[in-house]
């Protein structure tokens, strides 16, 4: 018996993708049979007609998808070339109208994937429908169903039943244009809910040796670069993928981009181009949407820690761990989120907030607005200068006057001024240290603090 029954998780986003059974073992064999006889004499489904072995191109794509899954799911795929008929997942081509696959089960055809014997399925291009379909069918072979199907554990919420969230969906994302892509743009990877569902079935791959990786993209080709090395994926037009990196101190680098971007490191969110509503897709050269994975059981292993903005006016936000956020050029809006963050505006007139945690906030060039929220922790600004046009925004504390701010000079950092404040009528406070400043300098220029 190679399969086991899957229990409901009571998370609709996960349960709506579960077929009800999974492969029982962590090692799953796969093969590319050369002859129909290798499927055995008693095939428990309609016998395939006009069988052909899949091409080397398809084999390469399948191996790459399995490798993609192995990096973040606690499962290993073992290719069987000596006795391909005995593999759990067998991939072949025959006369079928559409690709199809069988769920994990205890019958002989379970796990089999059949692709149409047509040219587009012999040489599927990156991000083509055929390439997307192969990834979709592998999802079925591992135990994922379509999200619109009700059995066994219900349908996915309608607002999430799209390729924005899962490759198992039949629907393109309704707001895909708002994410910088176009209708019909297909995912080039598993998507956030696919990963969440597979990890719920087989476990998340955590605690493995990890490297510090830098992910960047070529705006002209869509190719993904990892640590400066081209890892393929070039579509010639757009990027629409999820990046799940297990462990390490990892970076999203969008410094190649000139159009405004929204960059979010929060689990399940997107980094995407901010396309003006009157700009048509063909006139938008930088079509990019990169997604971060959801996290299972609170694990932070698959988070991205560093974000680097482009030359446009970007919105950049961190997640709940310590982040390093760099705005680059442009007038950026930056929020650190929870955790102890380094937030650096770079050139331009930026709006900078560390949010929660003890944050290090660097304005860089331009006239910057530092926004402080109740519960901010002990933040430090190293380059705040009187007369530079920089301003500290304390309006969220609802203070009555500057007298509500406790200020003191310190010899820390070679001389600094520390401001302490508590929200009016509340208990949440904060502390802000301005390196190189003094209480006298602040009081002589009260307009640098907004109350």
TrEMBL record:
Residues 19-185 form the Peptidase metallopeptidase domain. One of its GO terms (molecular function) is calcium ion binding. Belongs to the peptidase M10B family. This is Hemolysin type calcium-binding protein. The keyword Zinc does not apply. Keywords: Secreted. GO terms for biological process: proteolysis. Transmembrane segments: none annotated. The keyword Secreted applies. It is found in: Secreted. One of its GO terms (cellular component) is extracellular region.
């Amino acid at each position: 018996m190679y399969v086991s029954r899957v229990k409901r998780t009571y998370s609709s986003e996960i349960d709506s993708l579960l077929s009800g059974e999974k492969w029982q073992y962590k090692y799953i064999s796969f093969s590319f049979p050369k002859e129909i006889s290798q499927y055995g004499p008693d095939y428990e489904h309609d016998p395939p007609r006009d069988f052909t072995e899949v091409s080397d191109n398809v084999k390469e794509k399948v191996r790459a998808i399995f490798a993609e899954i192995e990096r973040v799911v606690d499962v290993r795929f073992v290719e069987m070339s000596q006795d391909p008929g005995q593999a759990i997942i067998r991939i072949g081509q025959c006369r079928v109208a559409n690709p199809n696959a069988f769920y994990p089960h205890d019958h002989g055809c379970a796990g089999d994937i059949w692709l149409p014997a047509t040219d587009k399925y012999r040489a599927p291009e990156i991000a083509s429908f055929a390439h997307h379909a192969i990834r979709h069918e592998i999802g079925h072979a591992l135990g994922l169903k379509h999200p619109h199907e009700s059995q066994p554990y219900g349908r996915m919420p309608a607002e999430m039943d799209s390729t924005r969230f899962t490759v198992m969906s039949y629907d393109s994302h309704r707001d895909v244009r708002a994410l910088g892509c176009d209708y019909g743009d297909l995912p080039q990877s598993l998507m956030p809910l696919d990963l969440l569902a597979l990890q719920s079935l087989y476990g998340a791959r955590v605690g493995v040796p990890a490297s510090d990786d830098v992910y960047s993209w070529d705006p002209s080709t869509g190719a993904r670069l990892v640590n400066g090395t081209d890892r393929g994926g070039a579509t010639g037009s757009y990027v629409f993928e999820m990046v799940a990196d297990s462990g390490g101190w990892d970076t999203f680098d969008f410094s190649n981009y000139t159009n405004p971007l929204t960059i979010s490191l929060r689990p399940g969110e997107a980094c995407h181009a901010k396309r003006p509503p009157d700009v048509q897709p063909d006139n938008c050269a930088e079509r990019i949407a990169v997604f971060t994975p959801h996290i299972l059981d609170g694990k932070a292993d698959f988070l991205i820690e560093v974000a680097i903005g482009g030359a446009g006016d970007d919105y950049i936000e961190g997640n709940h761990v310590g982040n390093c956020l760099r705005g680059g050029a442009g007038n950026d809006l930056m929020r650190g989120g929870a955790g102890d963050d380094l937030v650096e505006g770079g050139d331009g007139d930026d709006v900078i907030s560390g949010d929660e945690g003890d944050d290090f906030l660097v304005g860089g060039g331009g006239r910057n607005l530092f926004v402080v929220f109740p519960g901010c922790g002990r933040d430090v600004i190293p380059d705040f200068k009187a007369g530079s046009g920089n301003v500290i925004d304390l309006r969220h504390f609802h203070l009555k006057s500057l007298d509500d701010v406790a200020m003191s000079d310190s010899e820390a950092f070679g001389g600094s001024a520390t401001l302490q404040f508590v929200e009016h009528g509340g208990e949440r406070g904060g502390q802000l240290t301005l390196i190189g400043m003094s209480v006298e300098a602040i009081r002589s220029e009260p307009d640098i603090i907004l109350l």
